[in-house]
Write a structure and sequence with these properties.
The protein has 15 helices and 15 strands. It is of the alpha/beta class. It has a seven-stranded mixed beta sheet with strand order 12-11-10-9-13-14-15, sandwiched between helices. Strands 2-3-1-4 form a four-stranded antiparallel beta sheet. The protein has a four-stranded antiparallel beta sheet with strand order 6-7-5-8, covered by helices on one side. Helix 1 runs antiparallel to helix 2 and helix 4 packs antiparallel against helix 5. The chain is elongated, with a radius of gyration of 27 Å.
């Protein structure tokens, strides 16, 4: 039978990390049969920080335990500090169990002190407590600005924000003014079990608008591009703009589509993202207001599972200026996202949606994790999360991947 705890002691250990430190101290605690109530350990640049909260029963002699721990610390070449914890303070801590937890992720090419200062200020102003800070990116060599080099840290925070709209506004402002992408997510089982990722295609998976490339070959680029921009900003109806634009492509040779497809510029991080998602069993989909011909090309290249987009009508090797079937607008994207979630037998909270234009907003707002990727201002202001400074593979950090797990 466990004896009643009469004294609580918090032990903090610091010093150079090497194998066996924690094991040696734990052996001392085991010899005195103490109760371990909490513990945490972190190593930063080979410097160890270890905390253990343990309880002593009526049968325990605290002076003997502390003496043995101090002697062991001396042998190990580390420093050790003991802090008595009042029983009522521990009870108060226990009563706070179940409080809402959130994850704040900072992603930058170079993480600066101003990034940390700005984000921790927001956390403090919202009445949240930081429980843990973890580095998701790998150890960065000095002066290394190579491909896929990122600095990513994740804050685990406890509590309910006092003003969520202000929090979101402040995050957007910090991101815009300091050049760091920031995401704020509820830390729940859905966040750790995303299973389906749906992407817009043009200006998201690829760094171009395909209809503009077709228009360039047809000699109507300026006219089509102007309508495209209006549609993406949400200034005109997507279906109306779509029909006006493809009508201008009438007579374009079908072979032009093959040439454009073979030279589509992938967005930074796309291949790394899809290799990793495929390895870990995620399903992926293109839900695009663009064209299925190009979506299917990307499907084969990146191993994408589903493609839903618009089909251009071709007769006698020429584009007719018309389309086949229903137009894939914003509402249709959201409908297809729900259908895919149903087919995969997952909750909408387990779906990620990524896009840049106003016609992506319905699916972005429907998904559990909606991301405005290098998006128009209207989209960025409305979406739950925004990636504006980094590549597509940044999404992996939002899911919780670490560099060592990324392909």
């Amino acid at each position: 039978m466990t004896s009643k705890i009469r004294e609580l002691i918090l032990m903090n250990v610091q010093g150079e990390d090497h194998p066996g430190v924690t094991a040696s101290l734990a052996e001392v605690l085991a010899q005195h049969n103490v109760d371990i109530l909490d513990m945490g350990q972190a190593t930063i640049h080979n410097d160890l920080g270890l905390g253990i909260l343990f309880g002593l029963s009526d049968e325990s002699v605290s002076s003997s335990i502390l003496k043995d721990l101090l002697f062991k610390a001396y042998e190990l070449g580390i420093t050790i500090k003991f802090t008595p914890i009042p029983l009522e303070r521990y009870s108060e801590w226990v009563s706070q169990q179940g409080k809402q937890r959130n994850i704040i992720t900072l992603m930058a090419r170079h993480l600066k002190g101003r990034h940390i200062a700005a984000v921790t200020k927001i956390i403090s102003e919202q009445g949240l407590n930081i429980d843990q800070i973890s580095r998701l990116s790998g150890r960065r060599p000095l002066g290394d600005d190579g491909e896929n080099v990122m600095s990513v840290v994740e804050f685990s925070v406890r509590g309910v924000p006092t003003d969520v709209p202000k929090l979101q506004k402040d995050i957007i402002e910090v991101s815009k003014t300091t050049g760091v992408d920031i995401a704020f997510q509820a830390d729940n089982s859905f966040r750790r079990n995303r299973r389906l990722v749906c992407f817009d295609m043009d200006s998201t998976l690829i760094q171009t608008e395909v209809i503009d490339e077709l228009a360039r070959r047809a000699g109507v680029f300026d006219e089509v591009s102007a309508i495209t921009e209006q549609a993406m900003r949400g200034e005109i109806d997507f279906k109306q703009s779509f029909e006006r634009r493809i009508a201008m492509l009438k007579g374009l040779d079908e072979s032009v589509m093959k040439e454009i497809a073979e030279n589509l510029p992938l967005t930074e991080g796309a291949e790394r993202l899809f290799r990793t998602l495929k390895k870990y069993g995620y399903k992926t989909a293109i839900l695009s207001g663009g064209f299925s011909y190009f979506g299917n090309h990307l499907k084969n290249k990146l191993g994408i599972d589903y493609v839903f987009a618009n089909e251009l009508e071709v007769k006698d090797g020429k584009l007719t200026g018309k389309h086949i079937g229903e137009i894939m607008d914003g509402a249709k994207k959201a409908e297809m996202l729900k259908l895919l979630a149903f087919k995969e037998e997952i909750h909408l909270e387990q779906v990620i949606a990524v896009g840049d234009g106003s016609n992506d907003l319905p699916m972005i707002q429907l998904a559990g994790l909606g991301i405005a990727f290098h998006a128009k201002p209207k989209v960025k202001a409305t979406a739950q999360h925004a990636i504006s400074e980094n590549g597509l593979d940044t999404i992996l950090y939002l899911i919780g991947f670490r560099d060592r797990e990324i392909m």
